[in-house]
């Protein structure tokens, strides 16, 4: 049997970073360089490598991701069994979810990177790229949407989070844990999930302005007022507990709503959902929902910001945003 055809696209990041001194690394390596550094990769898959960009992950844009979606679709149309994207790890939890919102093929799209640059002892890039190619080649990975593979662990795009700034085991899946693991170069996944309809990709115009604010002790809402006056289209508030803000912030939330800003409430806890009917005081989830705030449910604040921006990009109104957030943040169904 011939080796499966896999497309690999590079966006830069630590996996592609080099330095003359071993410190202060910058992205320089191409997709061909990354592929060439993986022993036995040619025995496992017939790889076509493409360099889309060479950026640190904090500088990746939605336009870069739109290019990736176009490239990935073309590779699948040309017969690829799956595709792999390499990039920096700092923004993977957002970029992978963006890609997942727009990926409408059954073939796997797998995102990977590295926590250690190539010249560092114990560099994890080659192992991660090998694991990503193995995952993209596997029948079990089909119809799963976008997956993130690092440290031989497979995460869904909607749940993956970078929980540590460094170390190879930096990534976790919350709230339900990883989708699976690779053992002896074999993919092992838990029960299949469900996919949502893909959103269209906007290739023209500037993205909508959507802020992400985390509330805190003594928050008066002054920063939210600045966002409102600046003309932002939407804001995701990472609130206390199951979706709360200080009482002194409630008026600022109301001013944002009155100005036409779409306000979404998530939890800053990092795990668990927002609630709908547990607390009834000023600034509670019941109070905020009654005012017109939209609950993020199980979505992490960073995922909710990506989704809100994409929905607003296509002219979604408050009602549609509410429906899509409820649908895409649900655990099942």
From TrEMBL:
Q: Which residues form the L-asparaginase N-terminal domain?
A: 5-190
**Any idea where the Asparaginase/glutaminase C-terminal domain is?**
210-323
Q: Does the keyword Hydrolase apply?
A: yes
Key word Ubl conjugation present in the record?
no
**What Gene3D superfamilies does the database record attribute to this sequence?**
3.40.50.40, L-asparaginase, N-terminal domain
Instruction: Tell me the keywords, alphabetical order.
Output: Hydrolase
Give the CDD domains listed for this entry: L-asparaginase_II
- Name the InterPro entries on file: AsnASE_II (IPR004550), Asp/glu_Ase-like_sf (IPR036152), Asparaginase/glutaminase-like (IPR006034), Asparaginase_C (IPR040919), L-asparaginase_C (IPR027473), L-asparaginase_N (IPR027474), L-asparaginase_N_sf (IPR037152)
Q: Which family does it belong to?
A: Belongs to the asparaginase 1 family.
Q: What is this protein called?
A: Asparaginase
Source organism (scientific name)? Janibacter alittae
């Amino acid at each position: 049997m011939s080796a499966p055809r896999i497309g690999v696209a590079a966006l830069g990041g630590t996996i592609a970073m080099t330095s003359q001194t071993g410190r202060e690394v910058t992205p320089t390596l191409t997709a061909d360089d990354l592929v060439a550094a993986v022993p036995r990769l040619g025995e496992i898959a017939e790889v076509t490598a493409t360099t889309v960009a060479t950026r640190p992950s904090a500088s990746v844009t939605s336009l870069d991701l739109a290019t990736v979606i176009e490239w990935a679709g073309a590779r699948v149309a040309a017969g690829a069994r799956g595709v792999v994207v390499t990039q920096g790890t700092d923004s993977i939890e957002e970029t992978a979810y963006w890609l997942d919102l727009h990926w409408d093929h059954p073939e796997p799209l797998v995102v990977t990177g590295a926590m250690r640059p190539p010249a560092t002892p114990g560099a994890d890039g080659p192992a991660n790229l090998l694991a990503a190619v193995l995952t993209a080649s596997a029948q079990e990975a089909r119809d799963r949407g976008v997956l993130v593979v690092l440290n031989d662990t497979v995460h869904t795009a909607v749940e993956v989070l970078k929980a540590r700034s460094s170390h190879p085991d930096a990534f976790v899946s919350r709230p339900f844990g990883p989708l699976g693991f690779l053992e002896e170069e074999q993919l092992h996944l838990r029960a299949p999930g469900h996919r949502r309809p893909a959103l269209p990709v906007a290739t023209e115009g500037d993205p909508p302005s959507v802020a992400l604010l985390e509330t805190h002790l003594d928050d008066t809402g002054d920063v939210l007022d600045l966002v409102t006056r600046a003309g932002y289209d939407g804001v995701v508030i990472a609130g206390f507990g199951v979706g709360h803000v200080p009482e002194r912030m409630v008026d600022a939330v109301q001013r944002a709503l009155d100005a036409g800003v779409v306000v979404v409430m998530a939890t800053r806890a990092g795990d668990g959902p927002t609630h709908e009917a547990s607390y009834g005081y000023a600034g509670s989830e019941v109070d905020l929902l009654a005012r017109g705030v939209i609950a993020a449910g199980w979505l992490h604040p960073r995922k909710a910001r990506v989704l809100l921006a994409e929905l607003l990009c296509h002219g979604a109104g408050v009602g549609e945003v509410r429906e899509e957030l409820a649908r895409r943040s649900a655990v099942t169904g």
